[in-house]
Design a protein that fits this description.
This protein is mainly beta and about 290 residues long. It has 4 helices and 18 strands. The strands form 4 sheets. It has a 5-stranded mixed beta barrel with strand order 1-2-3-5-4. A 5-stranded mixed barrel has the order 6-7-8-10-9. A hairpin with a 2-residue loop joins strand 11 and strand 12. The longest helix is centred in the C-terminal third of the chain and has 13 residues. The two termini are about 50 Å apart.
């Protein structure tokens, strides 16, 4: 049976098929044209000849279409957060989705550096796609996450949350909670570049219009510059903005920050160099990432 002959059935989806006959270790199913193998280990119970049953269809290790009555963790057109089972530098990462055969995330979807590849028990946000009669995992993009995870999850500033790293940007990384809430981490707020799929415990710094900003660095070492740390903490405590700039009055600066104007300007310059704030003519704001 060639995959190219399959017209009525849909790979990677639930199909309703008829039990055509029973063999020693399997049931043979049909849509009226093709015959599909259902191993008895993949059957919920014993079936009667002529009975209609719902099965998930996937490709086995020999590229044959195989049925299972077990529900998959993801199917065509759906998304899921899947566990990494293993990796193979010639093929990619294998993800568990409830079937006997794991789902392959192609080497083409993974970083060039093997150091950044996921390890077993890491988790990846993926969707399922079919290509040439085979099922593959495909990493979700940032826009995919925003479109497919309509979450109203509220993260509290200064609290810690677990996220799973998904995307690399020029100025940082992006991870998501299990519910799909986006957290951006600026490159100055982590020490080592994490693996894709790695679980990270992030401290939330601010809530932005489109996401949250967080850090992987302990608060006490968030900034090497003491004055910058004082200014940044003031911004965090005041909804991410303040009516002070490098042009503000020296007495106002000392009254609020207990530092000289020159120290204040150095602190602001440090934050600007870190790309952490926006310096405007009349105010200063924590830089938002869209």
């Amino acid at each position: 049976m060639g995959v190219g002959l399959l017209l009525a059935i849909e790979l990677g989806k639930i199909n309703r098929l008829e039990v055509k006959r029973e063999a020693d270790i399997s049931y043979i199913l049909t849509d009226g044209e093709q015959e599909i193998f259902l191993h008895k280990k993949e059957a919920e119970r014993a079936y009667e000849i002529g009975e209609l049953i719902d099965v998930f269809l996937y490709d086995d290790n020999q590229a044959r279409i195989t049925a299972s009555t077990k529900p998959p963790s993801v199917s065509i057109g759906e998304t899921a957060l899947l566990n990494v089972v293993s990796t193979n530098y010639n093929y990619g990462a294998f993800l568990y989705y409830g079937m006997v055969k794991d789902l392959l995330l192609s080497i083409d979807d993974l970083p060039k550096s093997h150091r950044l590849w996921p390890k077993p028990n890491d988790k990846l946000f993926v969707t399922m796609k079919e290509k040439h009669g085979r099922l593959f995992a495909h990493l979700l993009t940032r826009q995919d996450m925003r479109d497919m995870y309509d979450t109203d999850e509220e993260l509290l500033v200064k609290e810690y949350y677990d996220i799973y790293h998904l995307l690399y940007l020029e100025n940082g990384i992006i991870g998501f909670t299990e519910n799909g809430t986006e957290v951006f981490i600026h490159k100055n707020n982590y020490r080592d570049l994490p693996r894709i799929g790695q679980k990270l415990n992030v401290r939330i710094l601010a809530k932005n219009e489109y996401n949250y900003t967080g850090t992987l660095i302990a608060q006490k070492e968030l900034m090497l510059d003491k004055d910058a740390n004082i200014i940044y903490q003031y911004l965090l405590d005041n909804d991410g903005e303040m009516p002070f700039t490098d042009k503000s009055d020296v007495d106002e600066i000392y009254q609020v920050f207990k530092m000289s104007k020159s120290a204040f300007k150095r602190g602001l310059g440090h934050l600007k160099k870190m790309d952490a704030v926006e310096l405007n003519p009349n105010d200063t704001k924590i830089k938002k990432v869209k």
